[in-house]
Records
---
Amino acid sequence: MVNAQEYLDKKFPRDGKVKHGRHEGKKRKDITELDITNKQLQGSLKLEEFTNLESFCCWNSELTKLEVVNCPQLKKINCNTNQLTNLTIINCPNLAELYFSNNYLTNLNFLNNLNTEKLECLDLSSNNLRGQELSAFSRFVNLKSLSIGNWLSREITQGVYNRFDGSLKTLRNLGKLESLDISDTDINGGLEYLPDSINFFRCSVFTRPESEVKAICEELREPGVGLKRKSLSLSLLFPKSNLSLVESDATGYSSKSINKWKRNNYHLVEIAEREEIEQLETSAHEVVINYD
């Protein structure tokens, strides 16, 4: 294995130019795409001074700590399949896509420094996030895809999995959300609050039969409702890894399925809509009072 920071500083020197490869002759500030995937990197990595970097990829490695600092043009980070327990992001106001599935992250503190209007895709599936509800995501009003479920059987049996719980209610204002995965979590209700923009919703129960998301699955699982998507073999995606994928089809539901459930439970949807109207009226009233 190779020390990640030493590799980066040698290949992309802080004060000089790159000597070899596709970025030969460039300084850090000149690089717009950086892919150091499958370099057998391990340990901590601090990515900084790449002031025009737009995309950074380092998946299928053994990074344990990542700091991304002062990369104002950065839009995408893909660090799926590492061993990250610590993630810090500072002064990266244009981040739109974050992929950190299959790591060991335990908290969402890094979200506090993100631009709430820029983030569109967030994949934190199969981490070790502590028990919490979904309110941390409600600020990201332009989010289109959110994956926080669990799909690695080996890690789950070892007690490493995301521990989200509560209701889907806190996602009600994410009007652009199209894809949501909460598989094998303890989120147990709130279908009536799902945004109408949802066109794919995954909530399977395979490796954690005790997971409370089963309650949602049972509500949606009717004859002729739902669809099956065969999970890809991780050996094709990560040939050097020993990952063990859930040995079942991944149950997902289309917008048609969600809409059918809402029609069958229109009374719950109406209550949710009234709550939203009352909330808006209360907020407007508070604004008037503060203005006076």
---
Amino acid sequence: MSLTFIYSRIISKDIKRTFEVSYIHMALKIIIRILLFTIRYTLSMYIIKYFFLISLFFLNLFGQTIDLKFLSKTVKNANVLLVTAESTQDLKLFALLKDKKIAFNIHPFKKNIFYALVPFHYFLEEKQHQLIINYTLNGKDFFEGFQINLIEDDYLSEDIKVSSSKVSLSQANKKRTSKEYKEAITIYNAVSSENYWFDDFVFPLNSTVTSPFGTKRIYNNITKSYHTGIDFKAPLNSKIKASNNGIVKLSKSRFYAGNSIIIDHGHGVFTCYFHLNKMFVKVGDFVQKGDIIGLSGNTGRSTGPHLHFATFVNGIQINPVNLLQTLNSLN
């Protein structure tokens, strides 16, 4: 074997090793760059977060602020948090919770007081949530941050047997329920700055609660939803009262809820009356507290005559017991 051949083999092996080392070096450089970028991004997020909090502190430190009061800083899921602010000026105040911006409204019973109902969704995570209150005072913007402790309520579960057509839907019924859902959500999200009630809210009838809010609903061994209202015992054709003054926003037959009435009470508050046998009001009617708006029934997805009573605040479904207690605490 010639020296030239041996020398060429050695050189080719060296070149191969050089290429291998070069590839490893390039891979290591890429990994290091990715790690550095990740570290910088994480640090940037922390810096932005704490810079925002420090900015809030100094903005409020060198200016006159308003007196904000909380009914409580601990709230259960599917409940509302009541926040009030006192000022002689005509203020624009907002409560910011995650991606939701909620306007304060003029207190219905007290002068120089503004209030906001901040709804906490049923499925919102159980932890500390930051609530930001934003307002303008003497030409300056203020942001005040508060930690709100959300705790999960202990909800029950129940098995319900209904017709399979009400659980496994046909394509036609899927289309219908989707349309009805979108229609209802549009109503609940249309928050009015007007207020129609100036008295305490009442339940639509005096009767026994057969199923409380929040109960997990298991239809024919399939978990479909949670109970989104209160079921009252109501023999067929029991008189149903309006919970308070308001404008009727929906009065029609629906697949799940049967004959349904939704009333807008203003300031983002809605009450709902489902499974009715008869409806005595139409869309656009102004009703007063205690008016008979319909008769109880067994329409829609129902296992017997009863009244399903539900409430919404600023587009979020809320426990009716908590909402009525909170609203009535304003008076």
